[in-house]
Amino acid sequence: MDPFAAALDALFIAPGSVAAVYASGDGSAPPTGVRTIRDQRTEEMPIGSGPVPTNLNLLLLRRSEVAVPAAGDRLQVGNFVGVAPGDPLFEIMGEPWLDTEGLTWSCEMRPIS
Fold first, then answer.
1. pLDDT higher than 80, residue 14
2. What percentage of the chain reaches a pLDDT higher than 70?
3. Do 109 and 91 contact (CB within 8 A), yes or no?
4. Mind listing the pLDDT tens digit for each residue in 79-94?
5. Are the beta carbons of 38 and 56 closer than 8 angstroms?
6. Which candidate in 58, 63, 72, 92 could, as Cys together with 25 as Cys, close a disulfide (CB 3.0–4.6 Å)?
7. Residue 61 burial by Cβ neighbours in a 10 Å radius (0-12, 13-18, 19+)
8. Is 99 helix (H, G, I), strand (E, B) or coil?
9. pLDDT band at 21, cuts 50/70/90?
10. How far apart are CA 92 and CA 72, in angstroms?
């Protein structure tokens, strides 16, 4: 097994990762259980005469679980144990991007419930 993939698998089952249900926005595939890591960071965006801090809400997905995520796809995010009705629902905004190794998708999300 690729050592990068093995290390990544360990991260996605470690504390800090959560269970989620992934559903394509167009309904072309049935909902699938996945593991995700939530990444909330602040980045500076150039607006007008200076940078303005903005919060990004990212979810990291393994490419082995979601081959090609797309804008409009949704994730219901649970906790370390599982997903339950009423857990937060997010929608992918824009185009997800792959990490350098091609193993993890970073998806900018917006809450929809």
1. yes
2. 95
3. yes
4. 877 888 888 899 999 9
5. no
6. 72
7. buried
8. coil
9. very high
10. 5
Domains of the chain in sequence order: 3-111 (2.40.10)
**pLDDT greater at residue 72 or residue 86:** 72
Close Cβ partners of 77 (under 8 Å, ≥ 6 residues apart): 18, 19, 20, 36, 38, 59, 83, 87, 88, 89, 90
Would you state the structure tokens that stand for residue 6, as one six-digit string?
A: 């093995």
Which residue carries 């698998």 as its tokens?
9
pLDDT grade for 71, boundaries at 50, 70 and 90: very high
Residues 70, 84, 14, 109, CA torsion sign: positive
Helices (H) and strands (E) in the chain, counts: 1, 6
Q: Which of 21, 30, 34, 27 is nearest to 90 (CA)?
A: 21
